[in-house]
Design a protein that fits this description.
The chain contains 3 helices and 10 strands. The protein is an alpha+beta fold.
């Protein structure tokens, strides 16, 4: 990235968890670990549809964004949500970015349409007023943007199946719930 661009705006302090069950194209028989090209695990999907995005995951919010004299210009992420104190598009952009990172892997059970629907559903949940505009832009330009980003960043990952007996974190496990 150039000197006047912003690569990452946000980084998770703790694991984040949510259900992707409504967006799965097929049931999972075992947990799947999705890792970047360096082998670092960023996303785990369990047979229940529960997804855990790992602490340290960094993303850029809604894009594009650039920096000009230390001022970030670009697509706004919204006003703070009253409950989370995060911008209203924060969680939606997190899940969307994590999904899109692994979209090209044949083992990834969420389609582009499913990832975009999860984005819209999270924007709706967080009462983000221009949600349909953001969703329409993602539907129209998301595929092209994904292909360009994949080529420029060369961040292709891989899937590592976890043992069938690998249990989901216990109910006492309290990641940031999305």
């Amino acid at each position: 990235m150039g000197a006047f661009s912003v690569r990452w705006i946000y980084e998770l302090d703790t694991d984040a968890s949510l259900s992707l069950a409504p967006y799965l194209q097929h049931p999972l028989n075992q947990p799947l670990s999705f890792r970047d090209r360096d082998g670092r695990e960023w996303l785990v999907l369990y047979p229940s549809g529960r997804a855990v995005i790992r602490a340290g995951y960094a993303w850029d919010g809604c894009t594009p964004k650039v920096s000009l004299f230390d001022i970030v210009l670009g697509v706004p992420d919204g006003i703070p949500n009253e409950l989370t104190r995060k911008p209203k598009a924060h969680h939606a952009s997190l899940v969307h970015d994590a999904d899109y990172q692994f979209l090209d892997l044949s083992e990834f059970p969420v389609s582009r349409r499913g990832a975009d629907q999860a984005f819209l559903d999270l924007l709706d949940r967080d009462a983000f007023a221009p949600r349909y505009l953001y969703w329409a832009v993602v539907r129209v330009f998301g595929g092209l943007s994904h292909r360009v980003t994949r080529r420029v960043r060369d961040n292709a990952g891989r899937c590592v199946p976890l043992p069938v007996g690998a249990a989901e974190p216990p109910a006492s496990f309290r990641p940031t719930d999305l």
